[in-house]
Amino acid sequence: MPTLEHKGKVFNVDEDGFLTRGMEEWSEEWVEYVKGVEGIDNLTDEHRKVIDTLQEYYKKNGIAPMVRILSKATGFPLKRIYELFPSGPGKGACKMAGLPKPTGCV
């Protein structure tokens, strides 16, 4: 199992760079790491809202929400979510939130 280290913390990741233990291993150091990988300069309240929404939905349903559900739940148009997370809600946002790599359309 691959690992990576950021700010003194070691994370177990899969081949796509998602946390293997998900939110159990999630931390602010992880958020900072993904922020850098994603090329996000400043983490805003909008970023946090997307992350919180993804985590809440996952805890309740066991899967990441479809993009339309994420857009509706956050109140952000899909275009804005892609502006916040340039690699998209599935790769960037779910990774930052500590969710497993989505299998469907997120």
Q: Give the amount of beta strand, in percent.
A: 5-15%
CATH third-tier fold name: Arc Repressor Mutant, subunit A
Read across the widest sheet, the strand sequence of neighbours is: 1-2
CA(first)-CA(last) distance? 25 Å
- Total tally of structural domains: 1
State the share of residues found in helices, binned by percent.
40-55%
User: Overall 3D geometry?
Assistant: globular
- In total, the number of strands is 2
Give a quick account of the main beta sheet: strands, pairing sense, barrel closure. Answer: 2 strands, antiparallel
Structural class: mainly alpha
TL;DR of this structure?
With 106 residues, the protein is mostly helical. The chain has helices spanning 28-38, 45-61, 67-74, 78-84, 89-97; strands spanning 3-6, 9-12. The chain has a single domain (3-97), classed as Orthogonal Bundle (Arc Repressor Mutant, subunit A), CATH 1.10.10.370.
